[in-house]
């Protein structure tokens, strides 16, 4: 029975997960290289520890939520998380990262005696706060079943999609759509504004018809407010994901013309200082116009 859950990496998603796990009745142990994040969660009732290995020693299940391949390499280095691993521990890797990086991490975790699952979560930070996530769980079926109460504490639905790595492949498909829908929402917003339409009315009308999407519903209000400094998912995270998806698509020979087409808007948003802002900031790029964009 899972009693203690560790969370390594308490950024936007990790913080939301840790808070929800506390609310669900789990003991929660957290670690982040940004100590202030762990300290803030300790004030809510979690226990902050100094190293990833300490999280593994104290937990029945460890969730990793990390921003980059480098971060995953550091967390799964032999003297980090694996140093505290043991037989029976399950490590749930939730980040959107290249499969090769996850396979390397899996080798180190499993060499230390634990089981590693590949379980990306689909949803924004705002959705994570209200447990409106979808889990794409892949790997050992018994370990996934053991983790089900944990998933129930942080997500709306869990899909067991197959062997290790299938979760990431599924997430690449989902995030390809998210990346495109986000820019499509911004394009629609600018059209509506220049057409003299009331943003709130457009929001209500479009939500009732075929044009809506989860991303439209999540990001249109942010675009309407024109305030992007409280990110639910940042521009730089989208750039990382797009690079990962395009690389994977190239490996399997899948064309991605629309994903390639939206990339310049994320690059422009980053160049204009929106790197750590919400990805809805691509709307600011469209509103201001971008060199070479004939539609603006």
TrEMBL record:
InterPro entries: 6-PGluconate_DH-like_C_sf, 6PGD_dom2, 6PGDH_NADP-bd, HIBADH-like_NADP-bd, HIBADH-related, NAD(P)-bd_dom_sf. The keyword Cytoplasm does not apply. Keywords: NAD, Oxidoreductase. Residues 4-162 form the 6-phosphogluconate dehydrogenase NADP-binding domain. The active site is at 171. It comes from the Bacteria. Residues 165-285 form the 3-hydroxyisobutyrate dehydrogenase-like NAD-binding domain. Pfam families: NAD_binding_11, NAD_binding_2. GO terms for molecular function: NAD binding; NADP binding; oxidoreductase activity. PANTHER family: 3-HYDROXYISOBUTYRATE DEHYDROGENASE-LIKE 1, MITOCHONDRIAL-RELATED. Belongs to the HIBADH-related family. This is NAD(P)-dependent oxidoreductase. The lineage of its organism: Bacteria, Bacillati, Actinomycetota, Actinomycetes, Jiangellales.
